[in-house]
Write a structure and sequence with these properties.
With about 325 residues, this protein is α/β, with parallel strands linked by helices. The protein folds into 2 domains: about 210 residues, 3-Layer(aba) Sandwich (Rossmann fold); about 110 residues, Magnesium chelatase subunit I, C-Terminal domain (Helicase, Ruva Protein, domain 3, Orthogonal Bundle), CATH 1.10.8.80. The strands form 4 sheets. It has a 5-stranded parallel β-sheet with strand order 2-5-8-1-9. Strands 3-4 form a two-stranded antiparallel ribbon. The chain has a two-stranded antiparallel sheet with strand order 6-7. α13 runs antiparallel to α15. The longest helix is centred in the first third of the chain and has 24 residues. The chain is globular, with a radius of gyration of 21 Å. Pfam families: AAA_3, AAA_lid_2. It comes from Gemmobacter megaterium. Belongs to the MoxR family.
Length: about 325
C-alpha cells in the first residue's frame, strides 16, 4: 500500500473518531447504531432505521445533519402524502404581461440529507416516489431530469410493520437501502444517562466535523481501500449462500428462503466492511468485518418462505448460521 494512501486513511480515521464522539454526545449509549449509520454515509448509501417510537431515531438523524455538515430536509410520511409532496411539481404562473409559463417548485427531496420519518406509514405509491432518487440521485418531473444534492443520503425511520397503519416497503425499495439498522431499547444505565441529559434546562449540542466536500472525498477514499482476496471470496460465498438452493451443502438453509439477496447486496457488503475497518482505525478489512456486517446488509434483502415461518424460524438466526458456516470454510482454506 502506498505511503500516501496510508496517510490519507489514518487522517480520515481521526476525523471519523471526532464525528462519532460528536454524535454520541447527543445520541447516548447506542454506539453500534451510530457506527452503522455513519458507515452507510461513508459508503455513499442510505440507511433504514427500524425501531419503536421514542427511541431517538429522529434525534440521531438531526444530529448527523449537523455533524456531517449537510443541508437536510425532513418529510413526515402519512397515509395522505402524495408523490408531488416529496418530489415537487410544476405550477402555471401568469406574468405581468399576461403570458403564462410553467415553473417547477422543488420538493423537500432536493437536499443532501433527507429524513424520511415513519416511511412505512405512507402508501406504496408514495413510497415508490423515492426509488429513482435513491438509486440515480435524480428525479424526473414533467419529463425533465433534475439532479439532487451531492452527496445525497436518505435516512429513513420505520415503525415495526406489525403496528397499526403501516405498509410494508416494496422489495425494490428495501434493496436500495445499504443497511437496515435495528434500534433497540437502551439498557438501564444508558436510559438513566438519557434521562438526565435530556430533561435539563439545556440540550447538548453537536459540532460540525465534516462538510459536503470532505464527505465526498472520504467516500472516494473508501473505494480506494484495498480488500484481500479471502475477504472478497467470503463476501461472494455468503451472499450466494443466502439465495434459495444456491450453495452446496446448505440446502437446509436455502429451503427456508422465499427469495434472497442480489448482486447489490455483495456491493453493499464490500463497501460496509471497508467502512467498519476505517472506523476501527485499520487499513484493510478482515473476515471479522464480514461477520459483523452480514446481518445489517442482508436482513432486509431476504425473506423466509411460508413453511419456515410456520416452523417459527428467525431470519436473523438463519443469517448467523450461514455466516458462521461460510466463514469457517474461508478460515480453513
Amino acid at each position: 500500500m502506498a505511503d500516501a494512501l496510508v496517510a490519507e486513511i489514518e487522517a480520515l480515521g481521526t476525523t471519523l473518531a471526532a464525528a462519532r464522539a460528536s454524535v454520541n454526545r447527543r445520541f447516548i449509549g447506542q454506539g453500534q447504531v451510530v457506527d452503522l449509520v455513519i458507515s452507510s454515509m461513508l459508503c455513499g448509501g442510505h440507511a433504514l432505521l427500524v425501531g419503536l417510537p421514542g427511541l431517538g431515531k429522529t434525534r440521531l438523524v438531526d444530529t448527523l445533519s449537523t455533524v456531517m455538515g449537510l443541508r437536510g430536509n425532513r418529510i413526515q410520511f402519512t397515509p395522505d402524502l402524495m408523490p408531488a409532496d416529496i418530489l415537487g411539481s410544476e405550477v402555471l404562473e401568469t406574468a405581468a404581461d399576461g403570458s403564462r409559463a410553467f415553473r417547477f417548485i422543488e420538493g423537500p427531496v432536493f437536499c443532501q440529507l433527507l429524513m424520511a420519518d415513519e416511511i412505512n406509514r405512507a402508501s406504496p405509491r408514495t413510497q415508490s416516489a423515492l426509488l429513482q432518487a435513491m438509486q440515480e440521485k435524480e428525479v424526473t418531473v414533467g419529463g425533465v431530469h433534475r439532479a439532487l444534492g451531492r452527496p445525497f443520503h436518505v435516512l429513513a425511520t420505520q415503525n415495526p410493520i406489525e403496528q397499526e397503519g403501516t405498509y410494508p416497503l416494496p422489495e425494490a425499495q428495501l434493496d436500495r437501502f445499504l443497511v437496515q439498522v435495528n434500534v433497540p431499547y437502551p439498557d438501564r444505565e444508558t436510559e438513566r444517562a438519557v434521562l438526565i441529559a435530556t430533561t435539563g434546562a439545556e440540550d447538548t449540542l453537536s459540532e460540525q466535523v465534516f462538510t459536503a466536500e470532505t464527505l465526498l472525498a472520504a467516500q472516494m477514499l473508501l473505494r480506494r481501500m484495498p480488500v484481500g482476496d479471502q475477504v472478497v471470496e467470503s463476501i461472494l460465498d455468503l451472499v450466494r449462500a443466502c439465495r434459495p438452493g444456491e450453495a452446496d451443502g446448505m440446502k437446509d438453509l436455502g429451503n427456508s428462503l422465499a427469495w434472497g439477496p442480489g448482486p447489490r447486496a455483495a456491493q453493499a457488503l464490500m463497501l460496509m466492511v471497508r467502512a467498519r475497518a476505517l472506523l476501527d482505525g485499520r487499513l484493510a478489512p478482515s473476515l471479522d468485518d464480514v461477520a459483523a456486517m452480514a446481518q445489517p446488509v442482508l436482513i432486509h434483502r431476504m425473506a423466509l418462505n411460508f413453511a419456515a415461518r410456520q416452523r417459527g424460524e428467525d431470519l436473523a438466526a438463519l443469517i448467523a448460521r450461514v455466516t458462521m458456516r461460510v466463514l469457517q470454510v474461508e478460515a480453513a482454506a
